From TrEMBL:
InterPro entries: BAH_dom, BAH_sf. Residues 1-38 are annotated as: Disordered. This is BAH domain-containing protein. It comes from Mollisia scopiformis (Conifer needle endophyte fungus). Residues 22-38 have a biased composition (Low complexity). The lineage of its organism: Eukaryota, Fungi, Dikarya, Ascomycota, Pezizomycotina. Residues 110-244 form the BAH domain. GO terms for molecular function: chromatin binding.
Length: 356
């Protein structure tokens, strides 16, 4: 079987059909004969639900047979309630509906239930099963519904999650987009998945094991290398849900990049280390240039530039020692500077309280 996984726009219909036609049996189940019966005969379609827009009998049939799926993924920054909920129709509808629904099933001694996250084997997935070591060799999905014709034909309706590299590039290039090839953003972590409302029916034999995927609410940074999702990708709008904005740059948190948190209870801003350094150096520069007749502020011009005025004059690093507040180690790069290097406590760029 060839589970479909592609996002609209990434693959042509022809390519999708080619994928569906080949019916390679999952390598982990060599006992299963590689015959056409392993092929998934079901397809998920998204009907037009407005009877005024219906033009063909087939569209009408799809609408009449539609079911409503409440998405198990509700992102904190969803643009509206139920953003990912949608109507869908599994075709051929009669065959799908005649199969009995089950709440769980067993593969290789493991019990899978509705709502479980699973690793799915794609055509390019290597034969050895290493979902922990190389999770990105697998696709990840969440089980929404299970139906079976008999013990050999068990199907799951799933909603896909995507690795950031699999996201389609947005139609207008995003400023934090990492490359042209995909919609991966700078804030996406290496253990991050993006939940979607793209659905498919899979033969459960394509499952390579259970996946543990944590819903991260961005209230802590205690991820411990677990797989997590915090953001959704909506099929209808092709938009990613909003994330919590942080820092003076109004940017986002990549859990693999250190951030500093202001302890002032009325502020609590999270700060990227490079933007905190930018603020420190801007202040140092201003202080040292306030009486040279060229006010530092005027040079900065209110914008963050790639060549900030302090660039060849000062540099800084942040030093942290156990239980001590972080300090900035500042170096004066100008000739004849005295002192050459000194340390300063760091003030929050928003509220000026010293970081603890
Ligand atoms: Zn920032
Ligand atoms: Zn603050």
């Amino acid at each position: 079987m060839a589970p479909k996984h592609g996002l609209a726009g990434l693959q042509s219909e022809e390519q999708l059909a080619k994928r569906a036609k080949s019916s390679a049996t999952p390598a982990s189940r060599s006992a299963t004969p590689a015959d056409t019966s392993a092929k998934v005969p079901f397809k998920v379609e998204y009907p037009i639900m407005d009877s005024e827009k219906i033009q063909t009998d087939r569209q009408k049939e799809l609408m009449d047979a539609a079911d409503f799926q409440v998405s198990p993924f509700v992102a904190k920054g969803a643009s509206k309630e139920g953003e990912l909920d949608q109507y869908y129709t599994v075709t051929p509808t009669n065959e799908w509906e005649q199969m009995k629904k089950y709440n769980n099933f067993i593969i290789q001694g493991e019990v899978y239930k509705n709502n479980q996250f699973v690793f799915v084997r794609g055509e390019d997935t290597p034969k050895d099963k290493d979902t922990e070591g190389r999770p990105k060799d697998f696709w990840v999905a969440r089980i929404l519904q299970v139906r079976a014709k008999n013990a050999q034909h068990v199907y799951a309706l799933v909603a896909w999650l995507y690795w950031p590299e699999e996201l389609p590039p947005p139609s207008v290039k995003a400023s934090d987009q990492l490359g042209k090839e995909s919609g991966k953003r700078r804030y996406h972590g290496s253990h991050e998945l993006i939940a979607s409302n793209y659905m498919d029916v899979l033969d459960v034999l394509s499952f390579a094991g259970k996946a543990e995927v944590h819903h991260w609410l961005e209230e802590d940074d205690n991820l411990q290398h677990k797989l997590y999702w915090r953001q959704t990708f909506c099929r209808e709008t092709q938009a990613l849900s909003k994330l919590r904005q942080h820092c003076t740059c109004k940017g986002y948190f990549n859990p693999e990049v250190t951030m500093y948190i202001c302890d002032n209870p009325t502020c609590k801003i999270w700060l990227h280390d490079d933007h905190l350094l930018d603020d420190i150096l801007t202040k140092v520069y201003k202080k040292h240039n306030s009486n040279d007749g060229t006010n530092g502020v005027a040079k900065i011009n209110g914008k963050k530039s790639k060549n900030p005025p302090y660039k060849n004059a000062f540099k800084a690093t942040i030093r942290e020692e156990n239980d001590e507040p972080p300090v900035a180690v500042i170096t004066d790069l100008r000739p004849n500077a005295d002192p050459k290097t000194w340390e300063e406590r760091i003030a929050c760029p928003e509220c000026e309280e010293l970081l603890q």
